[in-house]
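Notes from the 1:1 (GR / supervisor)

We went over the backlog. Supervisor wanted to see one worked example end to end before approving the batch request, so GR pasted a single chain during the call. The sequence is below; no edits were made to it. Supervisor asked that the structure be written out right there so they could see what the output format looks like.
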Amino acid sequence: MAAANVNIGIEDKTRQEIADGLSRLLADTYTLYLKTHNFHWNVTGPMFNTLHLMFETQYTELALAVDLIAERIRALGFPAPGTYAEYAKLTSIPEPTGVPKATEMLQQLVEGQESVVRTARSIFAITDEAHDEPTADLLTQRMQLHEKNAWMLRSMLE
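Structure output shown during the call:
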């Protein structure tokens, strides 16, 4: 789909590159949401209550984040991806196989949180160069939250 006629002081090609990066971020965020929600439903063991509640807090925040990311893509004048097929092509986060043990769930979620941070960081330079402060602000908030979540999840493994 072609870009909308958007004149916000960022060249079309640059807006496209930023939207493409945000589409990868959206795919990672949605995939992590789905994985976290899955683990919330299926976690068992002595840490059940703690992990069940922690996973719920995290998937709820991820559900809100996908909307923010998709809306930023739209504000840049491009369609936001919204299908499993598109997300499967764009995401860097692998789907789980079967139902892992609680500690493996934690490890996979740490890796997922860190993947989202890397994706966000990978597009930060172009947003900075384009003076796209709204996207840079969104990326900064996402990185801060995902780094904190990774730390909290990692702490459960020690």
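Supervisor's comment: The radius of gyration is 16 Å.
Batch request approved.
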